[in-house]
Write a structure and sequence with these properties.
Blueprint (H helix, E strand, L loop, with lengths): L13 H4 L2 H17 L3 H17 L4 H25 L6 E5 L2 E4 H26 L3 H10 L4 H30 L9 H7 L1 H24 L18 H23 L12
Antiparallel strand pairs: 1-2
Length: about 270
Amino acid sequence: MSSTFDLYQPGRSWLHRLDPRTKLLLVALGSVLSLLFGNLWIMAGLLICAHIALWSAKIRRERIAGIWKATLPTLLMIWVFWVALYGGSGQIIVSLGPVDITTYDLAQGGAAALRIGALAFVVMLWLFTTDQATLVRGLVSLGLPYEWGLTLAIALRYLPTMGGIFRMISDAQQARALELTKGSILRRARAHLPIIVPMLITALRTAENLSRALESRAFGTSHRRTYLRHLRLRPADWAWMAGTILATALLVWARFALGFGSHPLRLLP
């Protein structure tokens, strides 16, 4: 299968060179901050920081655009439903029947939507710059059983692959005059049967080939594993971990001691 559908993009940037455990810590602390704050500007800032990190790591624009394409409908839906279903305070901008749209509602819904986007791109900092083997070794070095780590790596590797196979089969069937966009929902669901059947066959063949590959490498016969390259934290890793922990601790203190970022629009209450 082509590496087009692999999440990892090879490179030699500063983010690629960081230890996978360091990147995992950055992801964990970034996720904590995105869940802790409810301010629109902080969420936008976190999202911008994630994009700057991806651009500095020279991640291709097509990959970043692909994440936006996958998440943008969900973000817009969260924003719309938040504004429509949650009644907040603030100046009323417009009234649409029983729904009063206020600045507070718009800011709160925007913060909730950007939170999901920030979480997605923060996680992609780790997945775009860490190959599957290094990812598994990083998790195993933190105490995760190797079998669990391998299961996670296989899932991360083959979910994009299956998505690519689905698109290829769909394009091939539509080139043979298969109509997927016309008719009722039930009719469109039935129209996907010519795609689902070859997808299932491909998935079963992939699982069989994968099991044979693992068996040929004597997977599971020994509980003690050896590695060609061992993970070692470099000075840059220690510096990033110390700086990130310190910044996160300061922001958490400001959040609970000063109320920093608790209001959707204002940084301080």
